[in-house]
Each structure stands twice: as structure tokens, then as C-alpha cells.
Design goal:
The complex is a heterodimer of chains A (379) and B (375).
Chain A lengths: L14 E6 L2 E6 L5 E3 L23 H4 L3 H16 L4 H15 L2 H4 L3 H18 L6 H8 L3 H15 L8 H10 L18 H17 L8 H16 L1 H4 L4 H7 L8 H16 L3 H4 L12 H6 L1 H8 L34 H5 L5 H19 L5
Antiparallel strand pairs in A: 1-2, 2-3
Chain B lengths: L8 H9 L14 H18 L16 H8 L2 H13 L23 H12 L11 H13 L53 E10 L6 H7 L3 E3 L6 E6 L4 E6 L3 E7 L2 H17 L7 E13 L6 H7 L4 E2 L8 E5 L4 E5 L4 E7 L2 H17 L4
Antiparallel strand pairs in B: 1-5, 1-6, 2-3, 3-4, 4-5, 6-10, 7-8, 8-9, 9-10
Classes of the chains: A mainly alpha (379), B alpha+beta (375).
Keywords (chain B): DNA-binding, Nucleus, Transcription
InterPro entries (chain B): TBP (IPR000814), TBP_CS (IPR030491), TBP_dom_sf (IPR012295), TBP_eukaryotic (IPR033710)
GO biological process, one term (chain B): DNA-templated transcription initiation
Chain lengths: 379, 375
């Protein structure tokens, strides 16, 4: 048929549209060469019009795993191995990454974002298995900014519609406490500072629970609370020798970074303990302060449930200094009588405008400034 | 003062509202009559509790504690289902994690009637009363959920509010209208007085207006004292006026954004003043399509809020990441408002186009927050 092009083999224009097993083909009626196989293309009909189709508009993207996706998947596996996660986590994280990659917004994102996405997938997997991985840890591993991480994390959770449980505090305590290098004597850790791991873990757990009950944990980053609790637990197990050691020194010899809010958490925790101590008669007479209460932490923890109830009976925690005032009706706001349609006086507007003299002065000053800036090294 | 509803009303209602439970795997099928007798047993105990504690069983309290949301949200079947399963397995609690229950019965906890009655039935050993457990499975769900993040295996640990519990404060509203219909709906039928007079204050209004003429920003910046213009940083003039104290972004296309006003009328007045300034500078400015784009309000519920509990029960609306932000971000669907809820009890509401949306959103969230008041 005319207008359909020529056969590449014999050059004839006698091309016939035929079908081979229901697949339409364009065949040269002279030599039998198959010119095109009907509509079998991987791209849109544009190709029939001999226009080049960009890769992003073709279906190739959905069929192949692109190199950048392969790289991302490899990064996910590497990260899981570095963190020594169980093998099932790897598959889940990879699945999340692939799922995210199906969205065009992710496919077209910058490399930095894709890198952070790797961390997000691993984090979500760990959270869903109650594996205590903090965002700070992932950011350190990926050399990423926490703000960047947070925006991508929130975006991906929303995009994939995932239900991510919160960080498991108990597991975090166990992992974090175990990382303190205090369980064996070493050149930097004298014998009197060495502590039994189990005892310290259980006491830290109890202290963190106490902090949770008394509103020290809600709304705050969990790690500094655990640092403070570990310190107090360690001190209280041998107060005579350890009271002299400060929080900073403790973290240093345990080879753990001291998070900045940990000292205020420590003070808050001590305040709670002091309040609890007030409820015990034999401690009340001792008139404890923030240092001496450490010696009695064991006793206080033993009776913590009733003590907390007694100490915070009025319903407000120590840190919430709301007192016992009955909830009063909020005072009505000053009623503004603005209607929005008032007259606007000219004088009021004129106060915002420059007089012609001021305009000239301003222009002169600007010109002078420009001149001064254009001369790089004024004399 | 609320009195327990007449027992004969309830079984009918329950029978009507809730389909008969499927047979639990470990026990035989309970007939409806058996359930009614258990219900009466429970209610008798409740009546006995009347002088001990506020006679408001969570079952009939329209100000539903958070536990009830679990109950309502999930299939009532499961609530029924778990009761006999728990109680009838003759003391075998191995499958059930009870570590959330307090080791000491508290006087202050408003859930006490249920808990103490449950204790009593345990002590009376085998005067089984599945209905008495009806609110508890919901708490159990929470307890179980929370238990996964609970910190020690000590028995008495995890009733989050146990330790801070008080007598229900006098502000406890006149929710004694025991509307039994409140058992079923997700949002409780709360009268306006529910919010006990807390009204969110508007803090910021963002509005836009079209001045309908092309503007020369350089000229505006030159002739106006209160304008700043740095084209390298931002392609608009930033103008401020003192009364009402607002800031405007004026673009060369003639569109203007006005922010900082505390009420809709103030925003409109401010926008008109900016338009007047631009007019005085020699441009044929008009005042078209004034529209409020966003309103931000804030208020204080005056009690601390357990954000971890709230994110568990309202997980599909809430996002709480303490590592990132101290507040909980609650995206309400109707009205479409985003609320930032903080542990101190301060609430910020944003995303409204109308004042009523803010008030409505707060009225919706207040009973939910009350449920997490651990006081």
C-alpha cells in the first residue's frame, strides 16, 4: 500500500497489512520481509509517527529495575548488615524501598533524598519489629541531617500509608545500657566503678518507668532520659564510691556520648525522687537533698508505685507547676469592635509614605552606597 | 448525680445494638439469658459501689474514656468475645497479659467501679460476670498495646494514669445525661458545655487580595517608609503597618498576602490599608477577591495529656515522633483541621478557613483529650 514506507530489504512499496496469529504485521508482498509487527512496541503510539519517545514516558521504567534503584536496594541491604539486623528485616526493608520507588515523586527525587529514603525504610522495618533504632543513629550512619531525614520520613510514611509504632522504650534501654563500657575493669574504668550488667539494667528500667509515669518522657527525646536513669542507677548501686563522679565524667569513662538534655532530665528525675522520699517517714526526717537521695534510690524504687501515687496525689506532676487551682473559665478575650469597613484616614496612610525630600535623600544615600561598594578597596 | 441506669433497660439495648457473640473457642456458648443475669449481677455490684466512688460506670458515661473508643471502634463482637474467653477459662490467664492492672485498687481512678468489681468477682471466685469486663477489654487492648512498650514485667506497672489519678475534678461536666446511645457512636454526643468554657483564641489570620494592577516594586520600596524589598532574596515587597499590627507581601502582579491579624475583620481592615497605601503611591489599586486563606487558633485544656496513649488509639489520625517534635500532630478529617497537641495541654489548631471550623475541631478533640487526662 502506498504511503506506508518501503521494504528495507527489496525496496518495494507493496506493503500489506496482514495478521499472523492475531498479531497484525506489515509485510512486504514481494520478498515477505516483515516490516513492522503491528502495534508491538514498548513505547506509545508516538513511535509510529517516528517521534522519539523519552524513557520516562515509556513503560521501560516499570519493567526494569533502574540503576539508581538497584543502588538504593544495595544500600538498604548494606545498611541492614551494618546494623546486624535479622535477615527477615532486610527483605521487608527492600520491599518498602521498592514500594516507595513506584511513586514518581520518589523516582525523580534527588540522590540525597534517595539516600535518606534508604535509612527511612530500614527505620520503619525496625520500628515495626520493635527493634530499638533511633533516628539519630541512622542519621549518623548516613551522614544525613536530622531535619532532612524527618521531612522525608514523614513524607514516606504518609505516602505509603504505613502504621509505624513508636519507639520501644524497654528495648532501647536494654540496647543503650549494654553499650556502656562499665561491666569490666579496664585502664580507664577503676574497679569500684565496674558494675554488674543485670543489676544495672533492671534498676535503669525501673527508673525509666518511673520517669515515664511522672511525665518526664512524654514529648521529649527518649535517649537523654535513659542516660540520666543509667547514671542514677549506677550511682545508687554503690553510692559511697560513686557519688563523687559527675554525669559528664560517667559518660566519658563509659565511652558514650552525653546528650545535651541529659543533665536537666537528671535534675528532674532527682526532684521526683525527692518528692517520693517525702512520703516515707524515715526518709523525711533525714532531710534529703539531691545528692543524699541517691543512697536511698533502692528503697524508693521498691515502693515506687504507692509513693508516686501519694506524692502526686493532686494530679499534677512535679514538673507541671500548675498547683491546685480549680480549672477556671478562660477569661473572655478583649472584644475587638473592628468591623473591617471603617474609614481609613488619609493622615494614617501618609505616616507610611516618604516625603519628596526624604525620597531624594534616600536615593542619594543609595547611590553613595552603590558607589562605595563598587570600589573594592576604599582608601 | 448520675445513677446507674435501670438494669432492665440495658440488656434490651445491648441485645439490640450488639449482635450475639460467636462462640468463643474455649468455652461453651452463652445464651442471652445467661448474659442478662451476669449483667444484673454486675449492675448490683455497681449499685453497691455507688457510695465508694462516682457512680458513673464507664459503660454509660457519655464522656467516654479512651477505653471506650477502642470498644466502639472495634467490633462490639470482639468485646463480648474476649469477656467469656478471659473469665470463663477458669483462672487460666496465661493467654492474657494482665500486667497493666494496678496491684493496688485505687480510690481515685474513675474506672474504679469496674476494676473493683472485677477484683471482687475474682475473689468471689467464679461468680463470673463477663459484662463487668466489658469496658476492660478495651483497656486491655490499650494495656496490651502499651505493654509492648512497657518497661518492666512488674505486675502493677502499666496503667498509665493510675498513679496520677485524682477524684474526677469538679469541672467534670454535666455529662450525666446518660445517653445510652453514646455507646455506639465514635464521637460522643457532647453538649456544648462539655468544653467547660474553654474557647480557642485566634492567633493569626492569613488572607489574600487582588489589587488588580501591575505594581512597580522598586517604586513602592522607594516611596514607602514601611517597606522592604530585596529582589535577590524574595520577589515581593514586605510592608508592615502598626494598626492592626500586620505584615503584607505585595507582588508585582498586584496580588497581596496579609498576615498577622487576630480576627477576620482586622485582616480585612489591614488589607484595605495596604491597598490604600499602594493607591497613594500612584497605582490604580482596587480591592478584589478578599479571601481568608488560613486561621490559626490556640488554647489550653489545663491538664497534662498522655500523647503515647493518644497515638495508639487514634493512630490513623495522629503522628507522634518525640525524636522529631515534642507535640502530637492530629489531622482531623471533619472539619479538616490540623491540631498540634502538647503534653502540657496546650493545643494549636490550624488550617481553618472559617472561625467555626476551629471551634468545631476543638469541641471534637476536647472529649478525646479528656480521656487521656491522667489526673
Amino acid at each position: 500500500m502506498p504511503g506506508r514506507g518501503r521494504c528495507p530489504d527489496c525496496g518495494s512499496t507493496e506493503l500489506v497489512e496482514d495478521s499472523h496469529y492475531s498479531q497484525s504485521q506489515l509485510v512486504c508482498s514481494d520478498c515477505g520481509c516483515v516490516v513492522t509487527e503491528g502495534l508491538l512496541t514498548t513505547t506509545f503510539s508516538d513511535e509510529g509517527n517516528l517521534r522519539e519517545v523519552t524513557y520516562s514516558r515509556s513503560t521501560g521504567e516499570n519493567e526494569q529495575v533502574s540503576r539508581s534503584q538497584q543502588r538504593g536496594l544495595r544500600r538498604v541491604r548494606d545498611l541492614c548488615r551494618v546494623l546486624q539486623l535479622p535477615p527477615t528485616f532486610e527483605d521487608t526493608a527492600v520491599a518498602y524501598y521498592q514500594q516507595a520507588y513506584r511513586h514518581s515523586g520518589i523516582r525523580a527525587a534527588r540522590l540525597q533524598k534517595k539516600e535518606v529514603l534508604v535509612g527511612c525504610c530500614v527505620l520503619i522495618t525496625c520500628r515495626q519489629h520493635n527493634w530499638p533504632l533511633t533516628m539519630g543513629a541512622i542519621c549518623t550512619l548516613l551522614y544525613a541531617d536530622l531535619d532532612v531525614f524527618s521531612s522525608i520520613y514523614l513524607q514516606i510514611v504518609k505516602l505509603l500509608g504505613l502504621d509505624v509504632p513508636s519507639l520501644c522504650l524497654a528495648e532501647l534501654v536494654k540496647t543503650y545500657c549494654s553499650s556502656f563500657k562499665l561491666f569490666q575493669a579496664s585502664p580507664s574504668v577503676p574497679a569500684k566503678y565496674v558494675e554488674d550488667k543485670e543489676k544495672m539494667l533492671s534498676r535503669t528500667l525501673q527508673l525509666v518507668e518511673l520517669a515515664n509515669e511522672t511525665w518526664l518522657v512524654t514529648g521529649r527525646h527518649p535517649l537523654p532520659v535513659i542516660t540520666a536513669a543509667t547514671f542514677l542507677a549506677w550511682q545508687s548501686l554503690q553510692p559511697a564510691d560513686r557519688l563523687s563522679c559527675s554525669l559528664a565524667r560517667f559518660c566519658k569513662l563509659a565511652n558514650v556520648d552525653l546528650p545535651y538534655p541529659a543533665s536537666s532530665r537528671l535534675q528532674e528525675l532527682l526532684a521526683v525522687l525527692l518528692r517520693m522520699a517525702e512520703q516515707l517517714a524515715w526518709l523525711r526526717v533525714l532531710r534529703l537533698d539531691r545528692r543524699s537521695v541517691v543512697k536511698h534510690i533502692g528503697d524508693l524504687l521498691q515502693h515506687r508505685h504507692s509513693l508516686v501515687r501519694l506524692a502526686f496525689r493532686d494530679g499534677t506532676a512535679e514538673v507541671e507547676t500548675r498547683g491546685k487551682e480549680p480549672p477556671r473559665i478562660c477569661p473572655a478575650p478583649p472584644v475587638s469592635t473592628v468591623t473591617g469597613d471603617e474609614n481609613i484616614s488619609d493622615s494614617e496612610i501618609e505616616q507610611y509614605l516618604r516625603t519628596p525630600q526624604e525620597v531624594r535623600d534616600f536615593q542619594r544615600a543609595q547611590a553613595a552606597r552603590q558607589a562605595a561598594m563598587s570600589v573594592p578597596n576604599p582608601p | 448525680m448520675a445513677s446507674a441506669p435501670r438494669p432492665e433497660r440495658v440488656p434490651r439495648l445491648l441485645a439490640g445494638c450488639l449482635p450475639p457473640p460467636p462462640p468463643p473457642p474455649t468455652v461453651g456458648l452463652l445464651s442471652m439469658e445467661q448474659e442478662e443475669t451476669y449483667l444484673e449481677l454486675y449492675l448490683d455490684q455497681c449499685a453497691a459501689q455507688d457510695d465508694l466512688a462516682p457512680p458513673r460506670s464507664p459503660l454509660f458515661n457519655p464522656v467516654v474514656p479512651y477505653g471506650m473508643y477502642i470498644l466502639n471502634a472495634s467490633n462490639p463482637d470482639t468485646a463480648f468475645n474476649s469477656n467469656p474467653e478471659v473469665k470463663e477459662t477458669s483462672g487460666d490467664f496465661s493467654s492474657v497479659d494482665l500486667s497493666f492492672l494496678p496491684d493496688e485498687v485505687t480510690q481515685e481512678n474513675k474506672d474504679q467501679p469496674v476494676i473493683s468489681s472485677r477484683h471482687e468477682t475474682e475473689e468471689n471466685s467464679e461468680s463470673q460476670s463477663p459484662q463487668s469486663r466489658l469496658p476492660l477489654p478495651s483497656e486491655q487492648d490499650i494495656g496490651l498495646g502499651l505493654n509492648s512498650s512497657s518497661l518492666s514485667n512488674s505486675h502493677s506497672q502499666l496503667h498509665p494514669g493510675d498513679t496520677d489519678s485524682v477524684q474526677p475534678s469538679p469541672e467534670k461536666p454535666n455529662s450525666d445525661s446518660l445517653s445510652l446511645a453514646s455507646i455506639t457512636p465514635m464521637t460522643p454526643m457532647t453538649p456544648v458545655s462539655e468544653c467547660c468554657g474553654i474557647v480557642p483564641q485566634l492567633q493569626n489570620i492569613v488572607s489574600t487580595v487582588n489589587l488588580a494592577c501591575k505594581l512597580d516594586l522598586k517604586k513602592i520600596a522607594l516611596h514607602a517608609k514601611n517597606a522592604e524589598y530585596n529582589p535577590k532574596r524574595f520577589a515581593a515587597v514586605i510592608m508592615r503597618i502598626r494598626e492592626p499590627r500586620t505584615t503584607a507581601l505585595i507582588f508585582s502582579s498586584g496580588k497581596m498576602v496579609c498576615t498577622g491579624a487576630k480576627s477576620e475583620e482586622q485582616s480585612r481592615l489591614a488589607a484595605r490599608k495596604y491597598a490604600r497605601v499602594v493607591q497613594k503611591l500612584g497605582f490604580p489599586a482596587r480591592f478584589l477577591d478578599f479571601k481568608i486563606q488560613n486561621m490559626v487558633g490556640s488554647c489550653d485544656v489545663r491538664f497534662p495529656i498522655r500523647l503515647e496513649g493518644l497515638v495508639l488509639t487514634h493512630q490513623q489520625f495522629s503522628s507522634y515522633e518525640p525524636e522529631l517534635f515534642p507535640g502530637l500532630i492530629y489531622r482531623m478529617v471533619k472539619p479538616r483541621i490540623v491540631l498540634l497537641i502538647f503534653v502540657s495541654g496546650k493545643v494549636v489548631l490550624t488550617g481553618a478557613k472559617e472561625r467555626s471550623e476551629i471551634y468545631e475541631a476543638f469541641e471534637n478533640i476536647y472529649p478525646i483529650l479528656k480521656g487521656f487526662k491522667k489526673a
